[in-house]
Amino acid sequence: MSRSVLIARPVWSVLRRIGEELSAAGYAVEYAGSWDSLLEERLAPSLLAAVLLGEYGDAAAEEEVLRRFRARDGGMGVPVLVVGGQNAANRARRFRAAGADLVVAADLPPGEILDQARPLLAYGELYRGVAAVVRELRDQTLVDGLTGLPNRRHFVRDLERTVEMARRIGRPLSCIVSDIDDLQDVNESYGQAAGDEVIRHFGNVLTRAKRSYDSVARLGGDQFAWLLVDAGPGQALQAARRAHRMVGESAFDGARDPIQLTATFGVASIIPGEEWTAAALMENADRALYWGKESGKNVVRCYPPEKGVEHA
């Protein structure tokens, strides 16, 4: 990944010369006409080795941009260097309080400015490396290691956000919870490795069954959840039936001979006007799954039952 430096509002010629020297040193230098570029969504603070800002204008507005940028990058990390004239010198303390690491005069030679900036650039490189590790660890905590699907933590976070969005825009939302019937028999007959392979295959079947904008996650063990955006009870029931049929038609790997399995599905939905919470939606899908297990497995059940108890 290129070492990136942003130079915003290069009104001082020294900033262009510094940019040329940084480019020659291997940095990817990007220029922007305004400090506001620091707040653009496309800009990822964790990918920046440093930011150089040409100060010339409304210092109070510039301070506010700095504060908002620091709020984006967690208050630290990306070195920020302000280059300006007397106005910058007079307000150096305020710029530092807003988030600048260094305020220097624009009439200094570029080499002298770079000498002051190099420790900050080294720190920026260190920060980028640490941030990359943190992102990788965070992603790992949200992904199930066996299937590569989102895990329970990820799913619950998405569920809460999506329920709130559905409530706000007045659209339906459905959740399907499913698990493999009698997986313990597979483990006992063929071993744990075969059982793990069956779980992976089951996750793949659900992934093929879902729409591109739905999400499927592994909640743990052989239980999976499927969030269907903008789908009411009828659509969710059809989706669960489709997945149920695909499971029944699949030959699962993981043993000397292909394994035929069945699965049970529980369906619950929120429709506009209902005040279910994310937790209630999940609990009701779980309740429908439990009813399916109690009634003999290998079925699709809905909550509430008066809206239709379907046997696939």
Notes on the structure:
There is one protein chain. The protein has 312 residues and is of the alpha/beta class. The chain has 2 domains: 3-141, Rossmann fold, CATH 3.40.50.2300; 152-307, Reverse transcriptase/Diguanylate cyclase domain (Alpha-Beta Plaits). Helices cover 47% and strands 20% of the residues. It is built from 10 helices and 10 strands. It has helices at 13-24, 59-72, 86-90, 92-98, 110-141, 152-169, 183-190, 192-209, 233-249, 278-294, and strands at 3-8, 27-32, 48-55, 80-84, 102-105, 173-180, 215-220, 223-229, 263-270, 300-303. The protein has a 5-stranded parallel sheet with strand order 2-1-3-4-5, with helices on both faces. The chain has a 5-stranded mixed sheet with strand order 7-8-6-9-10, sandwiched between helices. Helix 2 links the parallel strand 3 (48-55) and strand 4 (80-84). Helix 7 (183-190) runs antiparallel to helix 8. Residues 307-312 have low confidence and may be disordered.
